[in-house]
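Much of our argument rests on the idea that a fold can be written as discrete symbols. Part of our work consisted of pairing the sequence of a single chain with a tokenised description of its backbone. No coordinates are needed to read the tokens, only the vocabulary itself. The record that follows shows the chain in one-letter code together with its fold in token form.
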Amino acid sequence: MTAYGTTLKMPACRMTAIQGRIRRSPTVVASASLAVRPPVFIDRTFRERIVLAGVTLGRADAEATDASMDELARLVDTAGADPVARVLQQREAPDRATYVGQGKVEELRMVSESLDADTVVFDNELTPAQQGNLEASLKRSALDRTAVILDIFAQNASSPEGRAQVELAQLRYRLPRLRRSGKTFSQQGGGIGTRGPGETQLEVDRRRLMRRVTRLESDLRRIRKNRSTQSKARRRTSNRAVAIVGYTNAGKSTLLNRLTDAGVLVQDRLFATLDATTRRLKLPGGEAVYVSDTVGFIRKLPHQLVEAFKSTLDVVVEADLLVHVVDASDADPEGSIAAVRTVLEEIGAGEVPELYVFNKADIDPAAAKRLAERDPGSVAVSSTTGEGIDDLLAVVARRLRRQTIAAELAVPYDRGDVLAMAHREGEVMESTETESGWRILVRVDEGSAGRLAEFRIDQPSSGAEVGE
């Protein structure tokens, strides 16, 4: 206990990261191009000192709050600032005005002043009104977890699509938080077409930002449409799609590099990968599949980001199989799995077949083995050393074959178009010539099987293990 009557915890470690300073959200200026880098909270001149605040509500597990606060400390460090203390509270429900109540606000102010902290970051999401009231009482910036995650995404966004998605998420977060910065407001004078008392600068800013939101939404809808067209083209060739998903920093990009030599940047930091990367992979049986790595998930992932990143996350929704990478060395792998499952449900991928891959077996072999044994059909691997990768490829091939149909066809010689379709849309495993035409054994998905139905001479069999 401190002199302020509050639980005060120092972070378990002081992680190193690039210098930076978290500060209050700047005014967003409308960009003229989708490729403009979104504004960030970071002014990289020094590492700001941050007090972390966390609240356990009702009968929620205090240990879960501690784990979430550990993660918040990592997020703040990744954003470029130093967490110097933690202030915890347990209450039945959030205070409508300040989330933590005026007494706790005063404690936070005193702790911040005594430690020369610049900003208080709350693990719980604040309403715009709560954020404004807190900043007025604390006499310093007040941010929540969502703002920090948005800031990290803005720092790491590199592609035009990624920057557009982050900017859209930021604008949706900031629009309801626009507020007057002083007592005097510039106003547009009345005139032809602008009759009335005039328009405050706040209203001008809001209209400008809303126009930018509309533009970004239109650009991203176009990207989604183009990606959907590409996906339909892939479906016509029966090339299967595998999406690598998982908690941030679980080793997804390392796994993609191990499988495909993709050359994706790998960093031991949160949200190092924001853009989807897709590579072609040949499975042990010779089948070609497309494997995609995309943005990692996290507990309390801001809804604004999930909505804005839908064009990137379409590769997950449209996949034939999800390779769910779990860090076996994580102190709470079940919690990470649950957080990923929550996001998958939110984006509409909850019913996509899923394969658990317990990664980092080189760090904690016992934990990886225990987790894999507990979940039959899963695989323990090390993306770094290559341990278990052959087993993973075999399981992926087997799981994908279960989703296809082995069909035997009799194709007349004058129907070369059907023969071409079989090669284009499926995997031809056997082909022989007879007096009347070709006899073909082909593995295709259900859609292609339907288009080839008039040439089938076998009984339909789903998931036959032919050719394994």
Remarks:
- The first helix runs from residue 62 to 79.
